[in-house]
Amino acid sequence: MEAGVLARLADAGWRAGLAAAVNESPAALTERIEGLEQRKRELVEDFVTLGLSREQVQVGTVRADEELEAARRELEAARALNALPEPSVRDVARWWDEAPISARREVVGIVLDHVTVAPKKAKRVRSDPVQDRLTFFWR
Fold it and tell me: What is the pTM assigned to this prediction?
């Protein structure tokens, strides 16, 4: 899997697509997150001062939480993208070797859609390594 991740990180076309998918800069995303958190605080204040119903506050809070989660995921992607070196296999491989596991996980989450594991060919076969049964689906 590591080779697949590194190949995508070194591919200039793939990275351009990823950059286009990140709609806002980290600073703009941080500002949007702060605004959403402020909106949640204001909902509680409006509940007390304006007499909003519990249902109105709950609906507003759920919606704000959903938007916060999406904005935080996008911020993680933007930060991970900004941390990556320019697309050369050598630089990306060096970055991968030196990156903390948390940064590697963020990057894998960006480049890998999902993995399927095929069943064993026979129930009693011991020499059916799991890595031979993995199929990676890349973004």
Answer: 0.49
